């Protein structure tokens, strides 16, 4: 009865209740304790899971492979990949053979280095546990998380197909490799893999299409893939649209960015912070400061909280056209919202002050940065120096230039000539 109840707790994720039941039972069996360890793992209580495993010999209960697998999974969920490896070693020392679940639990973890995936897959291949689709997918995903390991992810995809074990890479496998290639800026490979999926009668899903869209370097290509999703009856999501809106920024296509946002609002979901921020950035690049402000204000009406990126883009849009009052107000609003302005925020506001010759405010903004623990860079100094120059304050400009040099910040030759005249 207790084993069944603890198992029910496992399904519900009620780890505290499972532990209370164990306190009431004098002689739990291996099934009960294994279920309790699983419950703790799902509840993020990896320390409790290890404690239960440690208590088993004192209760005269021998842990089995299932018990160890539950503890390994608990550690992986808690980001403790080193402990997961230690448990795997303990499993071998106890003369038990790790199975696919043992290895896949570690491979699926988000915390371990990508090199670990390669080593574990090699151990599996040489041992009794033949890697299956889950193992390969977990290893490929680890390579994808590794950043620039696209070639290894691609190689592993080929190895899975040629393993001789009848393995068929699925949508998860391809999506992970497409993402890895995209991050490695090998967009051609990402598109080739998307075509391979269709040839293998694998239906590209949202994840694989989004990975391919994000990998493409141009707006035209991203829009083409977005259109293919609709043709394939795949509903684009916020990631799909946000990737296209981000490209609008680079292409200075702010009108298209607004149309995409309108399309999102007319569909089954509302744009979120990422999409709106990308839209504000596109308007900034297009010199549309009033529209950027309107879009920033529109965010809250649809419960999309403005973030540092959206505020920085709006400040930049105002700054480029010299609307320093609005830029400074936005900077102050960021602080009031407890969104700490960074060097980008300050530099954008400083640029606005410089354009209108507001040298006192520009100097004040620069002097404030160390107190606010914001690192000043060359752009920060240059804005203040230019503001001083425009008002004929050559001595102040030269002092700032000297301070800038002491901090090892570069300067433009024209600025050097201007301050020495």
Helix content: over 70%
Name the CATH superfamily classification of the domain at 1-112: Tetratricopeptide repeat domain
Derived structural class: mainly alpha
Uncertain runs:
408-421
What is the beta-strand fraction?
under 5%
Largest sheet: none
Mean pLDDT over the residues: 81
| Annotated CATH architecture of the domain at 1-112 | Alpha Horseshoe
The global form is globular
Regarding quaternary structure, what we see is single chain
> What is the string of SSEs from the N terminus onward?
HHHHHHHHHHHHHHHHHHHHHHHHH
CATH topology of the domain at 1-112: Serine Threonine Protein Phosphatase 5, Tetratricopeptide repeat
Class of the domain at 1-112 in CATH?
A: Mainly Alpha
Q: How many distinct beta strands?
A: 0
Q: What is the end-to-end distance? A: 91 Å
Q: Please work out how many helical segments DSSP would assign.
A: 25
* Gyration radius, rounded: 28 Å
Pfam family, one: PPR_2
Organism: Polarella glacialis
PPR repeats: 29-63, 64-98, 170-204, 237-271, 307-341
Keywords: Repeat
């Amino acid at each position: 009865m207790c084993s069944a109840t603890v198992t029910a707790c496992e399904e519900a994720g009620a780890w505290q209740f499972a532990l209370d039941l164990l306190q009431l039972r004098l002689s739990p069996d291996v099934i009960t304790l294994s279920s309790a360890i699983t419950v703790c793992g799902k509840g993020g209580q990896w320390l409790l899971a290890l404690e239960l495993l440690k208590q088993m010999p004192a209760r005269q209960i021998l842990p089995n492979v299932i018990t160890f697998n539950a503890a390994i999974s608990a550690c992986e969920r808690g980001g403790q990949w080193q402990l997961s490896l230690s448990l795997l070693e303990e499993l071998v020392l106890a003369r038990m053979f790790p199975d696919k679940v043992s290895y896949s639990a570690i491979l699926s973890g988000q915390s371990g280095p990508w090199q670990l995936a390669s080593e574990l897959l090699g151990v599996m291949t040489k041992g009794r546990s033949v890697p299956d689709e889950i193992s390969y997918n977990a290893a490929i995903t680890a390579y994808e998380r590794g950043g620039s390991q696209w070639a290894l992810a691609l190689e592993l995809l080929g190895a899975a197909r040629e393993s001789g074990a009848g393995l068929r890479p699925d949508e998860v496998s391809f999506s992970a490799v497409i993402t890895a290639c995209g991050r490695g800026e090998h967009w051609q490979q990402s598109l080739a893999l998307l075509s391979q999926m269709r040839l293998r009668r694998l239906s590209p899903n949202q994840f694989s299409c989004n990975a391919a869209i994000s990998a493409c370097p141009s707006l035209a290509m991203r829009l083409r893939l977005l259109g293919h999703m609709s043709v394939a009856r795949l509903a684009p999501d916020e990631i799909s649209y946000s990737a296209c809106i981000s490209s609008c920024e680079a292409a200075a296509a702010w009108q298209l960015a607004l149309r995409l946002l309108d399309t999102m609002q007319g569909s089954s979901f509302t744009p979120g912070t990422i999409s709106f921020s990308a839209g504000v950035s596109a308007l900034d690049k297009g010199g549309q400061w009033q529209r950027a402000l309107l879009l920033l204000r529109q965010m809250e009406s649809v419960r999309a909280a403005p973030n540092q990126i959206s505020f920085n883009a709006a400040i930049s849009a105002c700054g480029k056209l010299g609307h320093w009052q609005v830029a400074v107000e936005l900077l102050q609003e960021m602080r009031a919202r407890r969104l700490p302005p960074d060097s980008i925020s300050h530099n954008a506001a400083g640029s606005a002050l410089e354009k209108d010759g507001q040298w006192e405010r520009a100097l004040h903004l620069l002097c404030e940065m160390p107190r606010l623990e914001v690192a000043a860079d060359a752009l920060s100094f240059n804005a203040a120096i230019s503001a001083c120059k425009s008002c004929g304050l050559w001595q102040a400009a030269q002092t700032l230039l000297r301070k800038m040099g002491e901090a090892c910040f570069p300067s433009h030759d024209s600025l050097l000539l201007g301050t020495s005249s």
